[in-house]
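Task card 7
Instruction: Convert sequence to structure tokens.
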Amino acid sequence: MQSNPILPGRGSASGRAVAERKTIQIPDVLVDPEYDDRYKTEGQKVGGFRTLLGVPLLREGAAIGALVLGRSTPRLFTPQQIELATTFADQAVIAIENVRLFDEIQDKSRQLELASQHKSQFLANMSHELRTPLNAILGYTELMADGAYGEPSEKMLGILKRLEANGRHLLGLINDVLDLSKIEAGQLVLELSDYCVQNIAQTVRSTLEPLASDKKLAFKLELATDLPPGHGDGRRLTQVLKSRRQRH
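Output:
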């Protein structure tokens, strides 16, 4: 079979079934005028078949192969046997298609996993590269506001405080991106501890108030004074509150 590949055509049972895309039956290959002489001689040596039944494997109207049954004596296959062979062929096509789809899904999954790993690595690297200069900017801003380079005027102090607030907001966004890459990599670990709800609320206010001011909007915080301490990951809670408010 490897040295004599069968091509679509009238010269063989499988080739004839594939070419015509229908079930065919050859009563006796030795007297069939269209049957290839190579298959008559070589096939007889190996299989000794005389009657052949060829059933095409059809997927969406296209033949992808054939199921061939043979008899060693010239005797036609019955309609019931042909129907059974056709059922086997249909099931074989379904099995082949399922394997093809499974392999395709596996390949796509590997590609997506690799792309996700590259994206997570990129986010982690980008976050690190952005945080380093931003921390330096925030450090100098704090020094200027504290008068390390001369006492700032009231107007300049307001600008520095605004710059610091926006810088810390940007730092928070960068940390959020880094956390996203950790979540996708399954490496995010919550840091559980007691936290002050009032402090978290004030952090959210200081971050979002400049954004609201830029849009000429009033930002008001109403918070009860007798709230009990919370327990959990305060930084993650702050991220949730900031992201919800920004979407609104």
